[in-house]
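User: Could you go from structure to sequence for me? I need the amino acid at each position, not a summary. Structure tokens:
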């Protein structure tokens, strides 16, 4: 009978093992099919404000550690709606990939060879599906942590109070002696055992509260190391430079993957019977505290290697995401970078628009864009600025051609007043413009800047007088300015310094048809009052406004109401 029970138990274990292997293979196959079908589609990933803030911390924690290129400031980032742009291309599968992709977009590089290398890797992932899927499955294994930033915990390791394993080893010795006492002389052993148990529990939880947040980060580090170990087994000449560096790094981090089950496996009641038993052993013998201290020493010593590993795996994951993004937009080109201060763009679109209208622009002087309300001026400026940024970050421009030098990129477009500081719209605006003027004054590097409705926050006479001088001061040999304005006077005052482009529309009986086509020359039409009428404003208001505007144009004065 006993043989039957043992045989049945053994058979059950074999069946469970087979079922586990089958489920793993089926799950991997299902994920592979999902990755294959989702490649080339716009990302539908959404993030809570806390999650988005968390993924930015890798970038913020290393702001001052690299001297190359420019860091896109918050004003320009927000002007270009870069949070939405980032989410539209974020098909990364790991936290390292997500954080590195964000960091790449905030750091346009000046080294053209680095941009070309990014394009090489992105293009290779675009063209080699099987290898790409192999990489993606491993990035998925790394996964994400959501509202936890590994970068924060690594940066703050010095804040973890020191702890000596001798104290925990002493607790192990006490536990063993107490157990021996129970076996040899139970009458004395049990009281001793309970005293030792209370002491070990008290010392355990005193330390455990300090290290608990770091355990999650250490678990993620070990996941990255294990997945990276499989990643280097994928033999591809195109990525060999990266896999060789990854292999060297994980060999140096080997100690982080030894007996990690003591720290991570089956924690709490959710870990089943094995997890419960392991939890009691941890508490009584301080096993996870000892392991944590060992890992803490290694992580502190190998901090730079861990960060480099994160950057390398993150770069590869981010490159796959960009490859998918390229396929998701209507059309794209790889940028051409030159030394001449110019911009030559063909069929430029804004990648967030559902039905974009392409624009062509060629200039060596910079341009002033005029046009009616809602005609497309601001969208064009954002598309042009986004093209400049993308060309120097992910080597991908939503156009048929983009030729320009490597620029420093600044904008002043989506300005709003600041309630928290009590600053008016005008004050916020002139500060945003001042930072552009200061940068232009203090650099010889090529610079491209985008200004939408300069000085809109003040009266007409002073706006035209001041904005004409501000724009003129940005007409420099190393600066290209793209500005949009409703002040047509500026197109005449500054025609020796900038080229004029415009957007126009066709006015129908009860409608306005916008073409959204960028055309050379200054605009001639205005539609603000007509838009009021089309939106249902009282005809008494719109007719009187139209008459007042006509009289002002004829007599250059406003009638008293």
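Assistant: Here is the amino acid at each position, in order:
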């Amino acid at each position: 009978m006993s043989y039957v029970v043992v045989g049945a138990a053994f058979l059950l274990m074999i069946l469970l093992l087979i079922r586990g292997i089958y489920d793993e293979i089926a799950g991997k196959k299902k994920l592979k099919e999902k990755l294959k079908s989702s490649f080339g589609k716009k990302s539908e990933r959404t993030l809570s404000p806390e999650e988005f803030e968390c993924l930015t911390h890798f970038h913020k924690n290393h702001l001052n550690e690299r001297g190359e290129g420019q860091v896109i400031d918050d004003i320009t980032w927000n002007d270009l709606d870069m949070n939405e742009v980032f989410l539209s291309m974020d098909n990364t599968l790991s936290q390292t990939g997500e954080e590195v992709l964000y960091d790449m977009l905030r750091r346009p590089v000046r080294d053209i060879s680095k941009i070309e290398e990014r394009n090489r890797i992105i293009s290779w992932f675009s063209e080699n599906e099987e290898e790409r899927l192999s990489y993606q499955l491993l990035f998925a294994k790394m996964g994400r942590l959501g509202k936890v930033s590994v970068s924060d915990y690594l940066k703050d390791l010095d804040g973890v109070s020191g702890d000596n394993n001798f104290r925990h080893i002493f607790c192990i010795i006490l536990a063993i002696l107490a157990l021996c006492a129970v076996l040899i002389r139970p009458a004395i052993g049990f009281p001793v055992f309970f005293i030792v148990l209370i002491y070990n529990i008290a010392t355990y939880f005193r330390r455990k509260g300090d290290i608990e947040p770091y355990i999650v980060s250490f678990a993620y580090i070990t996941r990255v190391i294990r997945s990276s170990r499989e990643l280097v087994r994928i033999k591809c000449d195109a990525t060999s430079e990266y896999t060789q560096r990854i292999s060297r790094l994980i060999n140096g981090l080997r100690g982080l993957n030894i007996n990690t089950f003591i720290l991570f496996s089956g924690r709490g009641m959710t870990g089943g019977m094995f997890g419960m038993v392991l939890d009691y052993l941890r508490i009584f013998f301080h096993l996870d505290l000892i392991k944590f201290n060992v890992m803490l020493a290694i992580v502190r010593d190998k901090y730079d290697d861990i960060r480099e590993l994160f950057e390398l795996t993150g770069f590869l994951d981010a490159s796959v995401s960009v490859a998918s993004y390229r396929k998701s937009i209507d059309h794209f080109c790889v940028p051409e970078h030159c030394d001449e201060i110019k911009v030559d763009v063909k069929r430029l679109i804004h990648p967030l628009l559902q039905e974009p209208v392409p624009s062509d622009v060629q200039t060596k002087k910079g341009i002033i864009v005029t046009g009616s309300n809602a005609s497309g001026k601001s969208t064009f400026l954002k598309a042009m600025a986004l093209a400049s940024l993308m060309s120097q970050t992910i080597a991908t421009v939503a156009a048929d051609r983009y030729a320009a030098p490597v620029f420093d990129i600044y904008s002043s477009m989506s300005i709003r007043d600041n309630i928290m500081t009590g600053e008016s719209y005008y004050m916020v605006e002139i500060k945003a413009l001042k930072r552009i003027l200061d940068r232009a004054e203090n650099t010889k590097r090529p610079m491209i800047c985008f200004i939408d409705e300069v000085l809109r926050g003040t009266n007409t006479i002073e706006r035209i007088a001041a904005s004409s001088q501000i724009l003129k001061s940005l007409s420099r040999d190393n600066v290209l300015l793209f500005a949009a304005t409703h002040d047509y006077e500026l197109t005449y005052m500054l025609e020796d310094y900038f080229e004029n482009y415009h957007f126009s529309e066709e006015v129908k009986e009860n409608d306005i048809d916008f073409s959204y086509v960028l055309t050379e020359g200054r605009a001639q039409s205005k539609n603000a009052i007509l838009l009021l009428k089309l939106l249902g404003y009282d005809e008494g208001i719109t007719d009187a406004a139209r008459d007042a505007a006509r009289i002002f144009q004829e007599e250059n004065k406003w009638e008293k109401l």
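One structural detail worth keeping in mind: The chain has a mean pLDDT of 85.
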